[in-house]
Amino acid sequence: MRDHSIWTFEYCAGKLPGDFMGGTPIRSNQGLVDITMVYSLIRTAPAAEVPLNILVDTGFLSAVSMTGRAFEGNEHPSTVLAKVGVGPEDIDIVVLTHLHFDHAGAFDAFPNARILVQRREYDGWKEHLAAMPDKSQGRQHWELSSIDLDVMARFDAAVDAGRIELIDGDLEISPGIRCHLAPDNHTFGMQWIEIETADGPYVIASDCVYLYLNIERMWPPGYVQGNSWNLMKTYRRLLEAVGADNLDRIIPGHDPQIFSRHPSWIRGLHPVAEVHLARGEPTRVHAAPSITSTSHGEVAR
């Protein structure tokens, strides 16, 4: 069995209507709720023959939401990764789960990385953006509500320059780390990542699952640019991957409970979750103020 360390970083925070991510009507009429904006680092075990740092998603460089409201305390990837002693130049592979602005906006901040995205995701956005006669509304238009056109222009240039690797379907990108295509799910070519560890499999679900609530209640969110029935199928695939009794081994895309369900600490503006440590990887939880919780509710910082 291969082993890996996994950290999940909050790089900024915000608020959205409760049913946006929790689903209607079960989270309707609850006002604005706190969300976290995250990406995750996977590192091979210290004893691995080939050491690798794999970043799943990248956050964005501009902290403006789809509605124009700024997210809070955006930290640059160099600041975020330094919390576990890594720099952008140390990232070997970047996996983009999808091309929404908050997951792919800083894709080009990692000079030495292979950058992987599903071909179906890229082609889907290219087709639909080309068919739009008027893009002047920007994020006020539903089709552009989570796409940054400036980022897409940079992404197109990177594809043309050979910096982007378009993959087709499920793929083991490193021994024990697999990308799984979830087509027409949250977006056209969404993917989730399965990671082998000595304690069993973990999953970085990204926006296949916004909140633990989605998979606990089997209830899709209110905002999807894909197909909610396919989301339900993906929930079942994720449960099969980790086991129904191991939901904490799934890392959702925007749930602050990530940091109460795993050992976590705060450095700088935002927390880091120590999701799993490979054998021989030292803990960093006691190196900064820790986060505690007696339940899967509010996070105490």
Short description:
By secondary structure, this protein is α/β, with parallel strands linked by helices. It has 8 helices and 14 strands.
Describe the structure in your own words.
There is one protein chain. The protein is of the alpha/beta class. The chain has one domain (4-291): Ribonuclease Z/Hydroxyacylglutathione hydrolase-like (Metallo-beta-lactamase, Chain A, 4-Layer Sandwich). Helices cover 21% and strands 27% of the residues. The chain has helices at residues 18-22, 77-81, 101-104, 119-131, 149-160, 212-217, 228-242, 258-261; strands at 4-17, 32-44, 53-56, 93-95, 114-118, 164-167, 171-174, 177-183, 189-195, 202-206, 250-252, 264-267, 270-276, 290-291. β7 and β8 (177-183) form a beta hairpin. The chain is globular and about 55 Å long. The two termini are 35 Å apart.
